[in-house]
Amino acid sequence: MNRLSQLTATALLALSGAAAASPAPHWVTSWQASPQPVWSADFLFPTLIPGQLQDQTFRQSARLSLGGARLRVRLSNAYGTRPLKIGAASVAAHTGDTPQPLRFDGQPGVVIAPGQDRLSDPLPLPTADRQALQVSVYLPDPTPLQTFHWDGRQTSWIAPGDQHRLPALHGAISTTARLLLSGIDVEAAASARSVVVIGDSITDGATASLDQDQRWTDHLATRLAPEGVAVLNAGISGGRLLRDGMGQSALERFQRDVLDQPGVASVIVLIGINDISWPGTAFARGETQPTLGELQAGYRDLAERAHARGLRILGATLTPFAGALPGTPLDDYYAPGKDAQRRQLNAWLRTDSPFDAVIDLDAALRDPADPSRMAAAYDSGDHLHPGDAGNRAMAEAVDLEVLLGPSTHGVDLR
């Protein structure tokens, strides 16, 4: 072998070694909205959506946690009883940009079977951390709406006709519910991972400022993006741990909303206050309050399933709620006996929980002068949900070293 050939071979070997040493990027879910079944017209709250769409375009915004070189969009027919025909779909990188078309097996549209979801083909659209996208879906045929996410805390739009490729919609009406879109994955660095927060309206962001990304998970996502970790919001307003509420129970949806998410490595559980407080209210007049043992068993079930998958799982104490929802049909949501059970559950979480660690959100939000109440500075005004300052305080109460620390179950997020 002459000198030139030797140099060429050495260079090729070096390049090959460098390529082998650089782990390939992988898919990580960067945004999520947990699907819920659309309820009937006699439910306590309106659905905020029409009964069906036909020859209409639905457009919504979604802020990513992590960016990446490519993305793919997940559309859901989780609770549909008939096939869902998608005529076309698109993504715009910024408000006012011309949307780029999505494809499904190379085609502009797709039919999604009942109970299923569908990922688009990868779209080469580079995105940055915390970038807001606009996703549009066109439905050509009469489409009963059976799957949605009720409390999006984001304005979405319903427009006549096929407008999925237009930078601005014409003749649109607004809603704060989400339709069709359940997730966005990005192709990110091999080290990128996600944390899923499964919860109820407090995680869903029920009283966070509209269109301002002020949920506590949004603040946590801002803290974690520099670490290459996405935060996925699996909150459902009216969600419960043990029983279905305004969505399936956490026990039922844990597989779909947590374990099945690409790139997930850690879970935060903040749910249970509706299990304690719904019974006896307009939501569930005939129900009895679950026992402390039943709630503990539910938490153990989630922890065992997470650990079986090698995931790190953290619990969070339930926040104060004395005087919750005054002047509403749910003004009996709070009662001293319910608060006593919350305190018992929190004491167990702090001392003997099945989780890898516990985030003490009760301590972060409570009024020092009256621990049964949320501190006024953090209260949205309904005495149950934190306002924007409270959401920020919740995110700041998370110790990132604890959250991202080594797991005894095979995963290290650091």
Could you list some keywords that capture this structure?
SGNH_hydro_sf; 10 helices; hydrolase activity, acting on ester bonds; five-stranded parallel beta sheet; Rossmann fold; disordered C terminus; signal; 2 domains
Task: Kindly describe this structure.
Helix content is 24%, strand content 26%. It has 414 residues and is an alpha+beta fold. It folds into two domains: 48-182; 191-403, SGNH hydrolase (Rossmann fold), CATH 3.40.50. β21 (312-316), α7 (336-352) and β22 form a beta-alpha-beta unit. The model is unreliable at 1-5, 7-20 and 407-414 (pLDDT under 50).
| Arithmetic mean of pLDDT | 94
Low-confidence stretches: 1-5, 7-20, 407-414
Quick one: overall form?
globular
% residues in beta strands:
25-35%
Main-sheet strand order equals 8-7-11-4-14-15
Helical content class: 10-25%
CATH architecture of the largest domain: 3-Layer(aba) Sandwich
Number of domains: 2
CATH class call of the largest domain? Alpha Beta
Main sheet properties: 6 strands, antiparallel
Q: What is the SS-derived class?
A: alpha+beta
According to DSSP, the number of beta strands is 24
Question: Might you state the CATH topology name of the largest domain?
Answer: Rossmann fold
| First-residue to last-residue Cα separation | 46 Å
Question: What is Rg?
Answer: 23 Å
Oligomer description? single chain
- Number of H- or I-type helical stretches: 10
CATH superfamily of the largest domain: SGNH hydrolase
